UniProtKB/TrEMBL annotation:
Lineage: superkingdom: Bacteria
The species this protein was found in: Aureimonas altamirensis DSM 21988
Protein name (database record): Creatinine amidohydrolase
Essential cofactor(s): Zn(2+)
One Pfam family in the UniProt entry: Creatininase
Key word Metal-binding present: yes
Amino acid sequence: MSETRTIRIADLTSYDFRRLVQEGPPVVLLPVGSIEQHGPHLPLSTDVILPEEIAMRVAARMGALVAPAISYGYKSQPKTGGGNHFPGTLSLDASTLIAMLRDVMNELVRHGIRHIVVFDGHMENQWFITEAIDLMLRDQRREGIDTVRAIKLGYWEFITPATEEVLFPDGLVSWALEHAAVMETSVMLHLRPDLVRADLIPDHPPAEFPPFDPYPFDLSTIPEDGVLSSAASATAQKGRLVVEQVVPDIANALSAFFARSGG
C-alpha cells in the first residue's frame, strides 16, 4: 500500500484496517473543524483544511492513522470567529457536536482503537470536545474498558515563542483576534495557496470588544469583513515555519504521552 493509504482510514479497506489494529492498535487522529467565514481571502473550510493537513503530517511521523474529518463545528463566536451571522457559516448546536464526536470515538474503540487524538482546528469547539471525551470514557468504563486514552489538541497551542516572534515581530495582539489573520493566512499560503485570494487579504486595526458579552451581540463592533485583525503581514514562508515547527513537536509530544500510557 502507498504511504497515503496507510494513513487515511477512509482510504483503507476494511481488511487493511483490521490488519493494522491486530498488528498493534495505532493512534488515531480525528480532525475536527468548522465551516466558517474567514474573510474575503480564505475559504469557508479553512478550519478543516489546517487541522487535517497538519494531522496528516503528524501521523506520517508517528505511524498513526487519520480518521475522516468532522467538518462542522460549534457556532462561530463574535470575539473569536466573527460570528454565526456571516454567510456560509454552517454550525452545529453544542449537543449535536458532542453527540457526533462521542459516537465516532465510541465506534473507533469498538473496532479496537485505544488511543485517540481529537485534532481541533476551531477554537469554539474546545469545551464540547472535552464533554464528548468525558462521555465516551464513561461509556467505555460502563463496558468494562478502562484502557482508552484520549487527547484534545489545538495545533496552534504548539506554536513556540520563537515562532511567534517571526509571525508577529511587532507583538501578538491576542490569539482570539487571530481569526483569519496572520497565522491562518500564512499557513494556508504555504499549504493551499490555490485557495487564498491574496489580492483580498485585509489590513485594518484589530477589533475592539467590551469586556463582557451582550446578547443579542452588538454586531457593530465586528469588522465588516469578519477578520478580527490585520493579515497583511502573512507570508507562505511564515506558514512553512509554523508547519515545520509544530509537526515534529506535536508528533514527539504525542508519541511520548502514549508511550507512557502503554501504547
